[in-house]
Design brief:
four-stranded antiparallel sheet, DNA-binding, single chain, 6 helices, alpha+beta
DNA sequence: ATGCGGACCTGTTAGC
DNA sequence: TGCTAACAGGTCCGCA
């Protein structure tokens, strides 16, 4: 479900509901996520007040006066605001009840997500420490991508999906950005010129920003913090469009597996 | 250091 | 209609 634009959409939807709000109670129904749900959610979070909700890559950071809740939605996770009267359903693993009566509810069928805790600067947490630059910030430059890719034989698609290289880029937006930049997804990262990385950095920024503006991409059931779906799906150029005509040249879009992930591309427009 | 495959889970869909 | 296999938006870990 969630890549950077979806996580940012969730953050924007949730922020007004959680910021400056005190946590009253936490109910953990299923501890077994990717890692066990941090015990601090029950020992330290109740009574704490959320100061801010930030995002780093695909991680959501709920900063409180007692520490920071680090949340990742994995592949199928969601966080939404529920009313106190809504009964918990299947896969509703954690409820965080807020002052005012509403509930921040974590649901995750596949349980690839996580809810962790740190009392220190979250940027220094082991999971965040090695994250690459934010693609929507100025720190992601063509020079940076060019330097990091030298001598790398890895295909460019898994290269830009590596969170240590760039934070927050998943399968959908990697596919889309490479199409926009006219770069073949299987091309070795180290065999791409500086000008082409300039194009790619621009394409990444463009596609991610456009997706954020439209509330992300809803493939199955993604909904933002306010419950509405994302509307970027209809703007996808190649993802989910294998066999359809390329928007650029009209030839059939091809599909294959690159770096163990399904990949759609145009064999003519992308080199 | 790099790159690959496996692992964690459930749900949906395609194919027989 | 029903069973099975493949695949799905993520990413860490261990091994070669």
């Amino acid at each position: 479900m969630p890549e950077l634009p979806e996580v940012e959409t969730v953050r924007r939807g949730l922020a007004p509901h959680v910021e400056a709000r005190r946590v009253e109670r936490v109910v953990v129904r299923e501890r077994n996520l990717r890692w066990p749900v941090a015990s601090e959610l029950r020992s330290l979070l109740p009574g704490a007040t959320v100061a801010s909700l930030r995002r780093r890559g695909k991680y959501l950071l709920f900063r409180t006066n007692a520490g920071t809740l680090i949340a990742h939605l994995g592949m199928s996770g969601s966080l939404r605001i529920a009313s106190a009267s809504e009964p918990a359903g299947r896969h509703d693993h954690v409820d965080i009840r807020l002052a005012g009566g509403r509930i921040l509810r974590y649901n995750d069928p596949r349980r690839f997500g996580c809810l962790l805790w740190t009392r220190r600067d979250p940027a220094e947490h082991a999971l965040l420490r090695h994250l690459g630059p934010e693609p929507l910030e100025r720190e992601l430059t063509a020079d940076y991508l060019y330097e990091r890719s030298r001598k790398r034989k890895l295909a460019v698609k898994p290269f830009i999906m590596d969170s240590r290289v760039v934070a927050g880029v998943g399968n959908i937006y990697a596919s889309e950005a490479l199409f926009l930049a006219g770069i073949h997804p299987a091309r070795p990262a180290g065999r791409i010129s500086l000008p082409r990385y300039d194009k790619l950095a621009g394409s990444l920024r463009q596609v991610l920003a456009a997706a954020v503006r439209r509330g992300g991409t809803t493939l199955r059931d993604f909904v933002g913090g306010d419950g509405s779906p994302g509307y970027f799906r209809q703007h996808l150029q190649v993802y989910e469009r294998a066999g359809e005509p390329c928007p650029g040249c009209g030839r059939k879009l091809r599909s294959g597996r690159i770096g163990q992930r399904g990949t759609v591309y145009c064999g003519h427009c992308q080199r």
